[in-house]
Amino acid sequence: MRLRATTEIQLSTTQPSAIIAMLRPQSGSGQWIVSEAYDLKPLLAPVEYTDVFGNLCQRFLMPVGDLEIKVDCVVECADQIATAPGAALTKPEDLPDSVLQFLLPSRYCPSDMLKEEALQAVGDAKPGYDQVEAIRAFIEHNIEYRRGSSNESTSALDTYHERKGVCRDFAHVGIALCRALLIPARMVVGYLHRLQPPMDQHAWFEAFVNGRWYTFDATQTEPRGGRIVIAYGRDAADVAITNPFGPVEVKGMKVVVEQTEGLARS
Amino acid sequence: MRLRATTEIQLSTTQPSAIIAMLRPQSGSGQWIVSEAYDLKPLLAPVEYTDVFGNLCQRFLMPVGDLEIKVDCVVECADQIATAPGAALTKPEDLPDSVLQFLLPSRYCPSDMLKEEALQAVGDAKPGYDQVEAIRAFIEHNIEYRRGSSNESTSALDTYHERKGVCRDFAHVGIALCRALLIPARMVVGYLHRLQPPMDQHAWFEAFVNGRWYTFDATQTEPRGGRIVIAYGRDAADVAITNPFGPVEVKGMKVVVEQTEGLARS
Amino acid sequence: MRLRATTEIQLSTTQPSAIIAMLRPQSGSGQWIVSEAYDLKPLLAPVEYTDVFGNLCQRFLMPVGDLEIKVDCVVECADQIATAPGAALTKPEDLPDSVLQFLLPSRYCPSDMLKEEALQAVGDAKPGYDQVEAIRAFIEHNIEYRRGSSNESTSALDTYHERKGVCRDFAHVGIALCRALLIPARMVVGYLHRLQPPMDQHAWFEAFVNGRWYTFDATQTEPRGGRIVIAYGRDAADVAITNPFGPVEVKGMKVVVEQTEGLARS
Amino acid sequence: MRLRATTEIQLSTTQPSAIIAMLRPQSGSGQWIVSEAYDLKPLLAPVEYTDVFGNLCQRFLMPVGDLEIKVDCVVECADQIATAPGAALTKPEDLPDSVLQFLLPSRYCPSDMLKEEALQAVGDAKPGYDQVEAIRAFIEHNIEYRRGSSNESTSALDTYHERKGVCRDFAHVGIALCRALLIPARMVVGYLHRLQPPMDQHAWFEAFVNGRWYTFDATQTEPRGGRIVIAYGRDAADVAITNPFGPVEVKGMKVVVEQTEGLARS
Predict the structure, then answer these.
(1) Which end of chain B is less packed: N or C, by CB atoms within 10 Å?
(2) Nearest to C153 among D61, D103, D113 (CB)
């Protein structure tokens, strides 16, 4: 499936402020960036680097006043996500080195405090993929999606008890419960085609079972493809699409994701 | 200063369990490993890898029964730690890429929830080194060192309010308050010469000001050298000296750190 | 300066062949990729990875038949390159770790065999920048630019003695002579605005003196900006824009580089 | 098998000279460093870093006068090396990203100039392991081991034609012929138990077939274990055990490798 995704952000600041943005999806094994444009008005000179998770990060110093960021990409991605009912747990001793960090508790996913809850959520599901699916279904059925019900400090522990949240919170609960069962799990931010309006950037999670990462999204009733990954992290702390260091206000943000038949713009 | 440090750990398990250990200090710009021995009884075949923070990690599968780990090192390290009263804050836009991750909140250092507390702790100290020193002194004077007062789930927020903890908790508070002021801070575990008995592994923190990392230790009244670094991380979640995945019990642990005049053992 | 650069390549193969391409410039400290498109006809599913030099590499399996690759980018880059007459040699002990590999001899730059020649070329130029400029000028004045005068196996040693070559050979000689004097040097492939026709991809070199990399181009009489870097390497072996593993024939290649005033295409 | 290996090197210099040493074997999937000592007399303060191949490198500035380096390690390693007659070639499209660089020609392994020779050497051996073994046997039977027959500039092309060399040259020919057939190959330096006297550091090569690296040593008539790996590289340029930048003279070098039954020295 070929998708075109656009994010426009209007920022304003009263002091020069450093900003780190993660707005450039990368080509990899699961998606191919056919074309891409990254505009800053006024024109700044960002510098790009790769963080420890492999994400492309853009750094720049925003001057006093307004800034408009417009990122536009055309991406070839999978129509459907892989599922693997019954697939086995990868034992800790068999995990790749690079995956081990996704077993550790993190700011929003204090998995060390949710062990009982994780056992309850999975019941007698078979260790591995089925446990993750049980966790996903548990969230879908027990946590209410409600805009504005959480804030920047809300952790998976909070959401688990308050039983409401948004996509980011759903992902945090999924990640924390997986890690509590020794299943590596990571946060994903990106775009989802035909996300229920209002369109926005989206968050979901991946779990590592049976030797690879699988996609899970507790905000959806069915497994769905049409996803563009922008960044991976331990939790939302690692994958803020813009991380300002100063009094930067977000004046507006608009996201559009649509299927396209065309070739790359040229 | 040349130090010899030894850690002996006795473990026991009723099921084969994967273990990740971080028990091998590395030579670097601040210390030189003159000699080192790493014994496992019974003899296992560990595999070593480097994590995202650059730490050497040893992985192995512990069989049912007992395991003794004995790590012994002779290290040339600095007699005194560098201090820099008055040294300036490094602005976010001037931080090296690799340092940026140490601005983010983490499991035990929810810096996003301690902003007011950080401002209070530093008062009118000059931005930069003096703020970090003010934070260190605040902890030294306001938080009581009490063994057994905290556990594995205790965060800097908990310690800040309960006003008691151990070295790990002191470091967490220091890190969280620094990050709340946009000063990168990281956890260090290692050895400290003449640590007040009982000798154990120790934890402290480093803050990045004036273009480099400086060492701070809120458990000590004076800046002190004689430190061997074993591992760095965002917080204690990243630097467990042994991280078992299974019903592994720690039966005993003994740490010895002493000054030595000799050359490397040969 | 804002440049638009386009590369179109027509390939043909009689057997399915793996190809590694390096055709995607990266944003970094010296350039910003405003927009970019990467088309393959027929549509393939490339996977992208980063090599040890930090270059983005695209891997795909080319099926039997024809393939057209069209890469198009708009890049904000420097109008002028930095020069630093008189700037000092960085002593080997002060070189950053990551730069040390560019002191070693490589396939096309056998610096170990050109020590005398390097000393001759620099004469009594001051160690550092002036030596590199002397090397560059030596090449400009002593080696004739002649298309077709070299081939894929031509090394800097060959070119030094035969006194003719193309941009790649000029760069190889520059790199080899620098390394022979313990000045780190690396190969650059990319685009140069207003390269003398016929327009093509271009190659030059960078040398590390006075704590940073400087650009040198022995094919030009004056230092010139308007450069887009595609890839860095030890020499041409590392930076082939397409590296086919099979009977792949290049049927055509066209490169266009032009200044543009517009914003990113959207 | 448990081996103890010691290297003692005496150096002398008339000018302060930077030195990069690679004398510290690493624990990994194939070997475990039980204990290790690294002495410098006089005592210097080396800094350690990891190069692009993952090797530990020690940097220091040698003052005028004499320096003695003594490195001593006890290593648990495999008694026998794995062999896999008949194992298939890994096609270029299936190679891991990190292995691709070992297909490229390098300073001492100009594989681009040895294609015909490679085809001749393998005859009709089955693509994959058997080809590499044919190459190894070709070298064993056609190239004479003769101390002093080569020097620092001798490449695989030279050795192929001159038909004599030492272990380093044997490895270079093996690597170059493998790469010419699109089989990734890399240089290994290390220790071999019961190497025919005089004992010295040793060099051999690894080739990547059937999804993993296999060890080949054309200086030996039988596959033999008892190997300690110190460093990997594209060829000898990458893995010099000491790389001095200045007028450093090697006054003496002594290597001892012996089997040991004891535990780590403590």
Answers:
(1) C
(2) D113
* CB of C247 less than 8 A from some CB of D: no
A170 and A125 in a single domain? The answer is yes
Indicate contact of D with A: 3+ CB pairs under 8 A.
no
A98 lies in the same domain as A179: yes
Instruction: Give the nearest chain D residue to C58 (CA atoms).
Output: D97
Q: Are residues A219 and A107 in the same domain?
A: yes
List pLDDT tens digits, range B218-244: 999 999 999 999 999 999 999 999 999
pTM (two decimals) = 0.94
Instruction: Extract long-range pairs of D134-143: CB within 8 Å, 24+ residues apart.
Output: D135/D173, D135/D174, D135/D177, D135/D178, D135/D216, D136/D174, D136/D216, D136/D217, D136/D218, D137/D218, D138/D177, D139/D170, D139/D173, D139/D174, D139/D218, D140/D218, D140/D219, D140/D220, D140/D221, D143/D169, D143/D170, D143/D173, D143/D218
Determine which of D17, D48, D62, D106 to mutate to test the interface with C (most C C-beta atoms within 10 Å).
D106
**In terms of domains, do A125 and A190 share one?**
yes
Sheet holding A248-259, edge to edge: A248-259, A2-13, A65-77, A31-41, C31-41, C65-77, C2-13, C248-259
| Predicted pLDDT of residue A264 | 46
Query: For residues A187 and A235, is the Cβ–Cβ distance under 8 A?
Result: yes
For D245, which of C105, C112, C182 is closest by C-beta distance?
C182
Question: Using a CB-CB distance cutoff of 8 angstroms, which residues of chain A are in contact with residue B57?
Answer: 97, 100
Same domain, C179 and C208: yes
> How far is the CA of A27 from the CAs of A54, C49, C258, in angstroms?
11, 8, 26
Q: Do chains A and C touch (3 or more CB pairs under 8 A)?
A: yes
In the block, tokens 């138990």 appear at D193
Query: So what's the ipTM on this one?
Result: 0.95
B116 lies in the same domain as B197: yes
CATH number at residue D204: 3.10.620.30
Residue D247 contacts C where some CB pair is shorter than 8 Å? no
Q: Would A266 be classed as within a structural domain?
A: no
Would an 8 Å CB–CB cutoff place A101 in contact with chain B? yes
Residues 6+ apart with CB under 8 A from A195: A202, A257
User: Is there a domain that residue D87 lies in?
Assistant: no
pLDDT string in tens for chain C (266-residue length):
999 999 999 999 999 999 999 999 999 878 999 999 999 999 888 999 999 999 999 999 999 999 999 999 999 999 999 999 999 999 999 999 999 999 999 999 999 999 999 999 999 999 999 999 999 999 999 999 999 999 999 999 999 999 999 999 999 999 999 999 999 999 999 999 999 878 899 999 999 999 999 999 999 999 999 999 999 999 999 999 999 999 999 999 999 999 998 654 43
Domain count for chain C: 2
Residue C87: inside a domain, yes or no?
no
Touching A: which chains, 3+ CB pairs < 8 A?
A: B, C
CA angle C110, D218, D115 (to 5 degrees): 55
> Within this chain, do residues D253 and D205 fall inside the same structural domain, yes or no?
no
- Predicted confidence band at B19 (pLDDT cuts at 50, 70, 90)? very high
C256 touches D: beta carbon within 8 Å: no
Whether chain B has a CB inside 8 Å of the CB on A49: the answer is yes
Residue D183's domain comprises 92-238
Does the CB of B100 have a partner CB in chain A at under 8 Å?
yes
Picking from D29, D37, D46, the nearest residue to B35 by CB comes out as D37
Using the beta-carbon criterion (under 8 Å), do A20 and B100 form an inter-chain contact?
yes
In a domain, C198, yes or no: yes
A33, closest residue in chain C (CA to CA): C38
Same domain, D231 and D253: no
Assess C33–D contact: CB distance below 8 Å, yes or no: no
Only one residue has tokens 């290390």, namely D190
